[in-house]
Design brief:
Elements (H helix, E strand, L loop, with lengths): L2 H47 L5 H4 L2 H13 L3 H32 L1 H16 L6 H8 L3 H25 L3 H9 L4 H12 L1 H26 L4 H10 L3 H33 L1
Length: 273
């Protein structure tokens, strides 16, 4: 074995060791995350059992689990989950697509952008909860009003994030395309969109959470199903176990939706490479 082959073998061994350390670190992180979650529930359960906290106000994990089982036995669990997830996905999809389209229009016309910019900032600063009663009057209680709330909470943020990403594209790349005689459409499709993919993915991560918030607010105000409805209903009848169960399920749904976006990000990055 010559010196070059020896260096390659040593490099391969070090690379394998490095990858092994990365895998071990990831497993340790996941294990600690699971242990932290289990510890939090165990402390909550023990605090309720030993009277450190008031069970009537805070409930406890075992009672929340019982509430979930009761919903499942009555055939209501999947209905409420389906309403919340479906409304969130619909509001998220429409809000995101509308936000990207409007952001593209603002990038395309600097004149329109300067006209609409202060209004977009004002709309972003308006508390979206205040729009709930308006949507209920316009659209009635139910699916339409809830989806409208989900769209309203996500579309403005998507416009601002994506438009800012479009404006921050390296101007030298655009000048180079102009030099080669590219049209504005070619610049947008060949330079702006590919360079803005990380920004659009970041906007998706933000808007998916905001869409879920809008969905829950809409269900608070005018819905007969969904996790938001369960939280309001449980509070009205002083069933805190049902409230806590709905909050825990809401946290799980939020995490799943976020990791779906993360998975999409990995697929897009892998495809680009």
């Amino acid at each position: 074995m010559n010196s070059k082959q020896g260096r390659q073998a040593l490099y391969s061994i070090e690379h394998v060791r490095y990858l092994r350390r990365i895998r071990v670190r990831r497993r340790i992180i996941v294990l600690l995350q699971i242990m932290l979650l289990i510890s939090a529930f165990a402390i909550w359960e023990a605090a309720a059992d030993y009277g450190w906290i008031n069970q009537f106000i805070t409930s406890k994990p075992s009672r929340a689990w019982t509430a979930v089982v009761n919903l499942f036995n009555r055939g209501e669990l999947w209905r409420h989950l389906g309403y919340t997830i479906g409304e969130t996905c619909l509001g998220f999809s429409v809000g995101t697509m509308a936000g990207i389209i409007v952001a593209a229009m603002l990038w395309w016309s600097d004149f329109i952008s300067k006209i609409l910019d202060p209004y977009i900032v004002i709309l972003n600063s308006v508390p979206k909860v205040a729009l709930g009663p308006i949507f209920i009057v316009w659209l009635g209680t139910g699916l339409k009003a809830v989806v409208a709330m989900a769209i309203a909470t996500s579309v403005i943020v998507t416009i601002m994030v994506v438009h800012n990403g479009f404006k921050n594209i390296d101007p030298n790349k655009i000048k180079l395309m102009h030099t080669f005689g590219a049209t504005r459409l070619q610049i947008f499709t060949k330079v702006v969109i590919p360079a803005s993919i990380p920004t659009m993915i970041a906007a998706l991560k933000v808007s998916v959470g905001l869409s879920l918030v809008g969905t829950i607010v809409g269900e608070f105000l005018g819905s007969k199903a969904g996790l938001g409805y369960l939280i309001v209903y449980g509070g009205q009848i002083f069933n805190m176990s049902l409230v806590m169960a709905a909050v825990i399920m809401l946290s799980i749904v939020s995490a799943l939706l976020y990791y779906i976006v993360v998975l999409l990000e990995r697929k897009v990055v892998k495809y680009n490479h």
